[in-house]
Amino acid sequence: MFPGGRVTDEVEYYRSRRELRNLVRTVTHRTPERLRWRTAASVVTSIAGKLEGLERMRVEEPVRELILDIDDRILRREVTLDARLNGVDLDRGEVLPRHTMWDLTRTAYLSGVDLEALARHVRLPGDYFKRIDTAGVVLVSRALSTLHGNRAQKLLMRVNNRKEKRPMMRYEQMMLDRASYDTELARRWAALARTMVKGSR
Questions:
Q1: Are residues 74 and 26 part of one domain?
Q2: Stretch (H or E) spanning 191
Q3: 153: domain range?
Q4: What pLDDT, in 10s, does the model give residues 43-89?
Q5: H-helix or E-strand containing 57?
Q6: Domain for residue 91, yes or no?
């Protein structure tokens, strides 16, 4: 590729040609930053997630080593979570904070969310003193926050798009109430996700 080209373009080029070595080299030789480089790193981990054995290790390990050397803690955290979303676990206790089931139970209570909703999507230990899957909890919490937020926006748009200047119907008021409820749930799930990543290294 051309010197000075965008890292995302280079990654897409090598991905289309299945040149895994050049793909990894492109990401590991660029300066990490929160926009295009993060997107490129996510592309690499999405490919690694579909590989197996030695071939997977050759893609995964260089990226993992690079992430551990990133000075930007937020970028390091988010790239690690992006990788987990792609089925690649780059964190072996060096990036995300370690929490027990008791920590999660207490935080969920303070945040006002239902742990059963979380347990439907991520495996939680039965023992309060066992460690939880922090990355899984954060990703599911963010997804639930987005789900409720989007639902609230759709309901509000349906009510606000009324053309008739008439009193609000009962079902429209019910939609507004539901939108307020979903907005609050979105805020609570987002609060849980933020709390669980506090202290990321």
A1: yes
A2: helix 170-197
A3: 101-197
A4: 999 999 999 999 999 999 999 999 888 999 999 999 999 999 999 99
A5: helix 53-68
A6: no
Q: Looking at the structure, do residues 80 and 134 belong to the same domain, yes or no?
A: no
For residue 153, what are the contacts with CB-CB under 8 A and spacing of at least 6?
179
| Residue that terminates a domain, selected from 85, 114, 142 | 85
Judgement on whether residues 137 and 50 belong to the same structural domain of the protein: no
Q: What is the pTM of this model?
A: 0.87
- Domain tally for the chain? 2
Q: Looking at this protein, which amino acid is placed at residue 84?
A: R
* pLDDT tens by residue, 12-21: 999 999 898 9
Unique residue bearing structure tokens 């347990």: 119
| 117/188 same-domain check | yes
Token pair of 53, please? 């054995």
Query: Alpha carbon 97 to chain centroid distance?
Result: 15
Instruction: Please give the sequence-ordered ranges of beta strands (E in DSSP) within 144-200, or none if there are none.
Output: none
What does the alpha-carbon distance between residue 141 and residue 123 come to, in Å, rounded to a whole number? 13
User: Does some domain include residue 50?
Assistant: yes
Q: Is the Cα dihedral 66, 69, 70, 75 positive or negative?
A: positive
Alpha-carbon distance of 59 to 28, in angstroms, equals 11
Instruction: Give CA–CA dist 24/113, Å, rounded.
Output: 40
Query: What residues contact 44, with CB distance under 8 A and at least 6 apart?
Result: 11, 23, 24, 27, 59, 63
Q: Is residue 60 part of a domain?
A: yes
- Give Cβ neighbours of residue 1 (< 8 Å, ≥ 6 apart): 9, 10, 13, 14, 26
